[in-house]
Amino acid sequence: MIVDVRKKILIVGLGLLGGSYARALKRFGFHISAITKEQSSIDYALKEKLIDEGTTELDERIIGEADIVVFALYPHIFIDWIEKNQHLLKSGALITDVTGVKCSIVYKVQQMLRDDVEFIAAHPMAGREVSGVENSTDQMFVGANYIVTPTDKNTPEAINTCLELGKLLGFMNVSTLSPEEHDEMIGFLSQLTHCIAITLMTCNDKENMEKYTGDSFRDLTRIARINDLMWSELFIKNKAALLHQMNLFIDKFNELKSMLENEDTDSMRQMMRHSTERRALFDKK
């Protein structure tokens, strides 16, 4: 194990993801502390033995003792925390995150961060349609993907530590991308899919349709139950990449629409066969 279990890990933001990190890492014997805004979350985590200690305050001792700090916060809150409170971090501390966008976060945080503290960004590609530490699970990451997004400011040691964390958490596939590659990829694989689900769920408001739907509509709109505060921020912070992916989708959708208008069955079937072949690549092995 690259990451020494004697290291103390602090989680800032003890919600669904932060709580799942705590559950998964606690199994290895790490000392886990937490800072979050709700006392009820701390109480729950202590009762369930997810953490060793926690607080809703900026506890200088807890922050100053942490070797690794995981920030599970909204992007703007994460940046604000670093700007105001980075002086509380110990020299040599390694910080990472769970943020769903990178270019607008990584470079800004690395630029403002002290030279004796290192930020190595990561994105756990996992989640649920519920929130809160009480819904966390140490199985959330099993079979999922984990992306580390290093820059030229990162040391090989920090990158390896972050990759090791992904493996300890249970992710099936642990990989690296540049922040730019990450945002392009996430614009398509995550953000565009949420845009489609939102649009599909709101383009037809006819009443009582839930009484007649089949599984295909439920499956396609599962992610339409959405945290509007978080996702609107993520969309805006990845605006250029997301707009590009939306335009690609609109163009392809219009192609299919044109095939239908012209009753071009051969082209529709060819597109469907291509879709079937591509979809097989995304099945979990």
Please, could you describe this protein's structure?
The protein is α/β, with parallel strands linked by helices and 285 residues long. 49% of the residues lie in helices and 13% in strands. The chain has eleven helices and nine strands. The protein has helices at 16-26, 39-47, 60-65, 75-85, 103-112, 156-169, 179-202, 215-220, 228-237, 239-261, 265-280, and strands at 8-12, 31-35, 53-55, 68-71, 94-97, 118-119, 121-125, 145-149, 173-176. β8, α6 and β9 (173-176) form a beta-alpha-beta unit. α4 (75-85) runs parallel beside α5 and α7 crosses α10.
Strand order of the largest sheet: 3-2-1-4-5-6
Low-confidence stretches: none
Alpha carbon gap, first and last residue: 26 Å
Order of helices and strands: EHEHEHEHEHEEEHEHHHHH
Beta-strand segment tally: 9
Mean pLDDT: 94
Structural class: alpha/beta
Number of helices: 11
Q: Tell me, what's the shape?
A: elongated
* Beta-strand percent range: 5-15%
**Main sheet: strands, sense, barrel:** 6 strands, parallel
Using only CA atoms, what is the Rg? 21 Å
Amount of helix = 40-55%
